[in-house]
Amino acid sequence: MKIKVCGMKESSNIIEVVNLGIDYVGFIFYEKSPRFVQDDFSFPKDFTLQTKKVGVFVNHSLQIIVEKIIKYRLDLVQLHGNETADFCHHLKMKLASLDSFMPQVEIIKVFSIGESFDFKQLEAYKPYINYFLFDTKGTNLGGNGVAFDWNILKNYKHEVPFFLSGGIDVQHVPEIKHLSSLPIHAVDINSRFEVSAGFKDVEKIKKFKQSLL
């Protein structure tokens, strides 16, 4: 099972996390987030190609998303707002036009889950995205530090792989392993592994990674 560490912005901290062999690192381009990546941000020169870069967007325009993809050579786009299936369709077509000078960029569509969730609404998105991401419905758009009831995932009948997110901590590893029959592509960790907003506890992430093996 792969691991995504989301909400990073400090160069030295990024390299420490990447050196753990983490599969995905997420960078948030949403200005209202305490983990917002400023315009003058640049990736450390030692950033390994083995770790994929995920850009997190919230109701951004196609133009801005494409600009960030090109500027930062993003591997994946994570849509964390109210983006429609039609928007995802247009984004997919736009990304296809970049194939001539950039590798294929994949799309993750986020859905926030509360006490109940209708998985039928995902059907319209399936032709246009590569992964879903299920997060906890809360006050903030991600980084709430609270897990949703994973029993709801038993109702997930789609073949599209997904990222599991929302308040995940080291203590959740046994529960995550019990979900192995589901098409979980990766677990997405964030606020529970922070010293401060955007600065991660490298040793705790290392412990989590080892426990998940």
Textual characterization of the structure:
An eight-stranded parallel beta barrel has the order 1-2-3-4-5-6-7-8. Helix 4 (173-177) links the parallel strand 7 (162-164) and strand 8 (184-189). It has helices at residues 11-18, 62-72, 85-96, 173-177, 202-212, and strands at 2-6, 24-28, 52-57, 76-79, 106-113, 131-136, 162-164, 184-189, 194-196, 199-200. The longest helix is centred in the middle third of the chain and has 12 residues, at 85-96. 32% of the residues are buried. The chain is α/β, with parallel strands linked by helices and 213 residues long. It has one domain (2-212): Aldolase class I (TIM Barrel, Alpha-Beta Barrel). One of its GO terms (molecular function) is phosphoribosylanthranilate isomerase activity. It comes from Thermoflexibacter ruber.
Distance between the termini: 8 Å
Strand content: 15-25%
Q: Summarize model confidence as the mean pLDDT.
A: 94
| Coarse structural class | alpha/beta
Biggest sheet: strand arrangement: 1-2-3-4-5-6-7-8
Low-confidence stretches: none
The total count of strands amounts to 10
Radius of gyration: 16 Å
The CATH topology, please? Answer: TIM Barrel
Q: Note the main sheet.
A: 8 strands, parallel, barrel
Tell me the series of helices and strands, N- to C-terminal. Answer: EHEEHEHEEEHEEEH
Shape annotation = globular
Helix content percent band: 10-25%
CATH top-level class: Alpha Beta
- Number of self-contained structural domains: 1
The CATH superfamily label reads Aldolase class I
Q: How does CATH name the architecture?
A: Alpha-Beta Barrel
Task: Give me the number of helical elements.
Answer: 5
